[in-house]
Hints:
Blueprint: E1 5-11, E2 17-19, E3 35-37, E4 45-48, H1 51-55, E5 66-74, E6 83-84, H2 89-97, E7 106-107, E8 113-116, E9 118-121
Antiparallel strand pairs: 1-2, 1-5, 3-9, 4-8, 5-9, 6-7
Amino acid sequence: xxxxxxxxxxxxxxxxxxxxxxxxxxxxxxxxxxxxxxxxxxxxxxxxxxxxxxxxxxxxxxxxxxxxxxxxxxxxxxxxxxxxxxxxxxxxxxxxxxxxxxxxxxxxxxxxxxxxxxxxxxx
Length: 123
């Protein structure tokens, strides 16, 4: 059985836990005891190998809306050198299109980031 990984989510209510750093059509919901699949054509669902790595994304200002949940990865994980620097839908569209963007939308991913095609939400 695969090892548990950790995902940072934005909490709106008990039943609505969404992608913490994406907006628009790229946002995914993470209900408890469900399997969530990445949007086609994206890097996948970003998770962290340790709770400590995930915790680095949560600062004291956002700790009331960002939470770390446990997930079990589905499929083969991959690491990447660059991710989109802006969470809005336009920047993500530009990033995934591969076009020459009018501004730099790329950055190194946070340490420990692994992308999977899907995850099983454990909590």
